[in-house]
Protein 1
Amino acid sequence: MLKELVKEDKLLDKLITNSGFSRKQLDYIIVRKEFGGKINDIMTKIDEGKISKGAYVITKERGIKNIKKSFYTLILAYYLGIISKESFIALEKIITLMDNVKGRILTKEQIDNIMITLENLLDQLINA
């Protein structure tokens, strides 16, 4: 399922490359969300075809754990004073930017500009 999304959305490919997730983890999480946890549907819709339930569960749980760790990292950085409350304004700008471009067909130049903007906003998040 992730392969189909990436084929249609080149920005998604760049975001995945810069994330802490494997493509397999994201694929499993997306399919799980799409099919509401119905294991038989999930097992046939993932990109690599049919896999064992055990392999699916382990990979999915690693992906979910990565999401939680990402949030804990932000909370810890705030708690230790590495980032400030104002840093979350930059994060809000990133979310607004993603909402504005999601689902649009973008040129390579637009994608490159978005990635530069993201880097600048992330720098603000860290340095604010």
Protein 2
Amino acid sequence: MNVYRKSLVVQIMLFGIFFLIGGNVILNHYLGASLPWLTYVIIALLVTVGVLGFIIYRRPDTRISVVTPKEMSLLRYLLYGYFFVYIVQMILSGVQVVQESYLDLLNIATGSILMLVALYGCYVLYKIIKVK
């Protein structure tokens, strides 16, 4: 499958945003009450990366990369896995049945998993752009 390279760069930026969200899960759990401005900093970073991604995407660039079906399905499963873990984290952290000690473990584990999935997605996309 032929894909514009600028689309792959925007996807790398998207996985970078996912990395920030995974870190935000951990940071907000421990520092959310003492640093309420942290949420605004994360939102500003996300908006900045979003505007930068839009600018990159609107740039006229006709270079094309070839993406194999295996790489496409791997990226698709990474996204599905990411959102499954993130939704489970949001649901379980909002339920009052979860004890505080388990909530600590839940936020650390899911934040770490989200960050690792985002890093692996960036790595796969970097290999696609660099090699092809």
Protein 3
Amino acid sequence: MAPLQSLEPQGVSLHLCVMREILLFGISGLAGLFIFGYSVHMFVGGLVSERTEFWLITIVVLIAAAIMGYFFWDILRRQGRS
């Protein structure tokens, strides 16, 4: 067996791989935040005032964004890019 020269695909720069990774994390993160916000709307919509629902959605989405940001940072840290 030949030793591994590089883990990146042939002809693809590391910069392009990182950009694709960021794009993938961004799209999946936005979809996740949308689902979090919508699930709060489905649980409390009609039970509380619109203002309270807005603030609950905002709080849940901010908490989820912070957790996703931590996950993204941890991935980059473990890969040695941070």
